[in-house]
Amino acid sequence: MKEAFKALADPTRRKILDLLKENDLTAGEIAAEFSISKPSISQHLKILKTAGLIEDEKDGQYIYYHLNTTVFQELISWAMSFTQGGNTDA
Amino acid sequence: MKEAFKALADPTRRKILDLLKENDLTAGEIAAEFSISKPSISQHLKILKTAGLIEDEKDGQYIYYHLNTTVFQELISWAMSFTQGGNTDA
DNA sequence: TAAGTATTTAGGTAATTAACTAAATAATAA
DNA sequence: TTATTATTTAGTTAATTACCTAAATACTTA
């Protein structure tokens, strides 16, 4: 979770997640949506992957990225613990 | 939300939120839980407040801080949009 | 094997952030 | 009013981050 919070702090990375919500995409397809360099996008993808928010899958020459929902679910539980219903005490 | 993601990236700020989950606390009481200086804690409180995660209330000489659950609820909605059930398409 | 495409790694720089100390502001109590 | 306590603001510094270009790696195709 620690890594996820840091990963989510950057707007470029949140936009990458938004794109992956629609479709699985290659690193190149993701980079094409931004005006920043491919190496920079590659760095962002690495950070998202380290945080467990995305996973990659190699398909020949390409690397496809897709969301991993596990950490999002953890995030939901975390945030719920701060709302009325989220109190685990009796 | 943009500010909230940035605010949540720091572990000190997340620990402050954990403390406020239990009780409303003054800035001094919060600072006492950490080994960092009071001015630094004050800065963190300002960031959390700007992000809408906490609110303050003056009581004489003291300033009490408490959670504001609104942004946590927004965060839950945001995270849910990335999980299976969260798709708004038909 | 050689050339081309996709992606990452390496190394460097500018901007941001988190911490500090010192000083300012606000309220209370003597 | 003066002293004390609580908290924030101001200014500085060290660490982190986000970006860049250049080079390396991996795969495909001729």
From TrEMBL, chains A, B:
Record keywords: DNA-binding, Transcription, Transcription regulation
Pfam families found in the cross-reference section: HTH_5
Gene Ontology MF annotations: DNA binding; DNA-binding transcription factor activity
InterPro entries cross-referenced by the UniProt entry: ArsR-like_HTH, HTH_ArsR_DNA-bd_dom, HTH_MetalResp_TranReg, SdpR-like_repress, WH-like_DNA-bd_sf, WH_DNA-bd_sf
Residues covered by the HTH arsR-type domain: 1-87
Stored PROSITE patterns: HTH_ARSR_2
Lineage top rank: taxon: Bacteria
Protein name: Transcriptional regulator
Organism listed in the record: Halolactibacillus alkaliphilus
